[in-house]
Every structure is written in structure tokens, then in C-alpha cells.
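Exercise 7. Given the components listed, write out the predicted structure of the assembled complex. Treat all entries as one system.
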Amino acid sequence: MSALSNCALYSKEHISVDEFTQKAFTFLNEFLSASDSLDIMIVENDLIVNKTPLRDAGIHGVNLMKRMKRKGISRVDFLKGITLSELKQFITDISDPEKQIMTYPHIKAGVVDVRMGIPQKEIEFDIESLSSEQVEKVKEIYPEASPFKQFKQLNTMGLEEIIVNFIATFKQGVNILRLISPMRSSSEYIYTHATNVAALSIFQAGSLGVRDDLLHDIGIAALLHDVGKLFISKEVLLRSDTIGEKEREELERHTIYGARYLAKIDALTHLAPIVALEHHLGYDCQGYPKLTMDGEKQHICSQIVAISDFFDIFRNRRPYKREWEIKEILSLMKSKAGSAFNPFYVDNFSRILLTALSDSGTS
Ligand SMILES: [Fe+2]
Ligand SMILES: [Fe+2]
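Answer.
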């Protein structure tokens, strides 16, 4: 795990990678002298090594799980007879976002979920059901929050899976409009909204040339941008009439609640609390929460998510919003370019949506 982390951080030639690989090789050889294989599996959010959950695998354990998920594998078996060069190759391949996992004579990488195991370019999605499947997954994973209760541990690996699927659809050139879920009921709004904002943000960032880890991290941050709403009472969240000053303040606090919660989860990208805090801040920083330091700026990832957020809010039939036509939303967004939104990202977003509209023949 340490070799892998160092390999991703520095380069495969770095001395620490060699050292840790050598250590791992010695350990594996010792272990395999008494046993035929050693297997590592991901089950939910845990690493299972030879049927034993590895509790507190630490940051390197999390990193290993993340790399495995992003390669679409959830199980690795190390077999008797393994060589140092095989192990080196495996570590290099798994830490390189561009490389596919190959077959090695004594290392077998496999999957639990069939879809996750197929190389990304070959994945065939049932696009019609993909977005609703993802919404269901988000619903399962999202913590059941209450200010008085402890959060259950967030299944960050489950989130990775959702993002891997959306990135694959982006790479395949799927029409973004087919990935956006309509709202099913107001109680499920939070999950459909999270899923839609994640898909929209991946398509935005992807079209701006963002790749690999950063693209994944933006997706994860987008998926969790409103997680702080789980701390807000249902009465305030679902008010259909105009809300009062006090309730508005409470609602706005979802940014702070979310950031505070996400900052405590080690396994998560540091972008998640930033985006949760800043997605209503505005490009001109005139939104909320109010900044306390001069010269602070909205993070570019928050700027991207803010645009997806705005679009999905207006597109969904909220209790207090009528359904807006896509072009209407885009022109409203344009009127806020330079103030609430980064003008360059607004242009890019409009281009994506207008292309998607004309491709789907609904323009
Ligand atoms: Fe929000
Ligand atoms: Fe939102």
C-alpha cells in the first residue's frame, strides 16, 4: 500500500517505491511459503485481506481501495511464485490512471460487479436506467443525518463507483440530457439532485480537459455538495411558501454543516468540504457563507459545481419552482455570468447543453 501511494505521488523510479515494493515482496514470499494465495478484496468500505477485515487501514489503505475502484477491480489475488518484477509492474499499472490492469502470471485482478470489471471503453450501459440506478445507490450511501445522532460511516468506495460510471459515459460521448434524472418525489429530491449535479459537473470538467484523479474528485465533491442539508429540518427544507428570514438563514447553513461533516472524513478528497462550503458563494464572493478573510476566492471546482447546481435546481420541479426550459435557464445563467458565475464556465456549460439539445433533436 505504501509503495502504491509513493508511486502515485512521485514516480515509479523513486527510491521509496523500490524500498516498499521490496518489503512487500519479502512479506508476500514469506506468507506464500505457507499458503497458496493472499487475496485483497473491497467489500463496501472495507479492505478484506484473506477474509479478515483490515480495520483502520489508514490513508494508504484508502488509497489502495480508491485505485482499485478506479480501475474497476474489487479483488486482487497474489499467488505462490510471484516475482519482484511482476509486483513492480502491478504497482506501476495500478497507480497510473491511464493504464489498464493487465494479466500477470501470479497476480489476478478481478471484480465483483460485472459492469465495473469491463474496460471502460467497452462498457455498454443501459442509459435509460443508469441514472435512476445511480440515484438508488446515492440513496443507500448517503448518511442518515441528524444533528443529534452520530453519522454512519460514509461509504466512499460506493461513491467512487457512481463516479466511475459517469466518467465512463462521458468518455463514450453519451448525451448528458439522458443522464439527468427527473425528480421522483420531494423526499427523494436530495438524491436525484446530488446525482444530477455530479453528472453535470463531470461533463463540464471533462469538457474543460480535466482528467484522471481530479475529474474523479470533482465528481465526488459534486455528489456531496448538499450533504449538509441532511442537518436541516424537513419543515425548513420542504417549505413551499416563501420562507422567512430565520428559516433562510438556517437553510443557508447547510454549506457550513456539510463542510464540517465532510472535513472529518479522512478517506475523502479535500475538494469535498471546499465545494460544500463554497457552492453558493458566487464567483464574485457575494453569496453565502460570508467570507471572513480578504482576498479569498471561490475555488474553480466550486465554480463548476455551482453552475451544475443552478441548472439542476431550475430544471427540477421543486415545490416552489416551475419547470424551466433549458434555454431559458441558460439565458438566466448568462445574465449572472461574471457575478454569480465564472463567465468562461457558463459559456462552456451552454455549449455542452446546446449541443446535447440539438443532438437529441429537442431544440
Ligand atoms: Fe446547496
Ligand atoms: Fe444543490
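Discussion: The first strand starts at residue 37 and ends at 43. The chain has a mean pLDDT of 85.
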